[in-house]
Amino acid sequence: MLPTTQTLSAFKGTSQKLFVAPSPAEKPFVAHSTIEINSPRYFYTCAVGGAMACGLTHYALTPVDMLKCRMQVSKGLYKGIFDGFKQVSAKEGLKGLYLGGAPTLLGYSMQGMGKYGFYEYFKYLYASLAGEETAAKYKTTLFLSASASAEFIADILLCPMEALKVKMQTSTTPFATSFLGGIRKINAAEGINGFYKGLAPLWLRQIPYTMVKFATFEKTVETIYKHLLSKPKDQYSKTEQLGVTFGAGYFAGIFCAIVSHPADTLVSKLNNVAKAEGESTGALAVRILKDLGFTGVWAGLGPRIFMIGTLTALQWFIYDSFKVQTGLPTTGGAAAPKKE
Questions:
Q1: Which of 56, 78, 114, 123 could be disulfide-bonded to 146 (CB atoms 3.0-4.6 Å)?
Q2: How far apart are CA 324 and CA 331, in angstroms?
């Protein structure tokens, strides 16, 4: 599902204004941080930036996510996303649109911390193990491996809050009156399994999603600087470099949404369908997939493409903006300085 270099280079004749806004008053941005690249402090800084990027964006898009989950669980509930906004706003107001906002903010902040922090760590670790020449030759494999490893850890952090979020957003009657009330209710009914029964499907959704997200983003940024723009990266201003970040992020997000959507539908259903006596989570997943059929697993794809495209672009923009504020370089497009 990764776009080829030929696909990305198809835009070669397009004006660079599509990707960056000219800002002649701004000076070129060259990284000048006291934080050493690939040091523990660097990884911690990236983790903080990731927590901000994922937590804030997912919380902001809670209404879209809530409607998407309801459309997956109850087919035909709304005619479309705008009809859903209209119905929920009329019945429940702003509070109804942000149902599940607290577990969304907490869960995705923790996930972003693991996703971005460990991605930078594993990228450095695997490159060191492979050697400079091999790492340069197989960069895409490096991006895929590092992002998959990071997401495996990040989803363990996310899963309990994702379970609570989905239950709050899709229950036909109010699931709980408070965040802590919801935690207690799941724990009383199902114990620890109630928080982690969706972990395997979450891995199936998020690991391919993140592999596409990071590898496509890195490849797109590299292609933009190499083929679409006329100067080296460090001759562009902060605004221009962040414009590249946003554009590459949105492009990557479209691919992410398509690749991960069937598993996303399964996660939504798993947290709302009761197990039969003696039925395992795997057997329940198979039963749900049979009931949904091929068409059913793609329910809600339109809202999710809009959501994930916007989400991914904003996440990369916030993440790189945070890095720039600390004096670190934006992600991709040039080799990072080596750690001595």
A1: 123
A2: 10
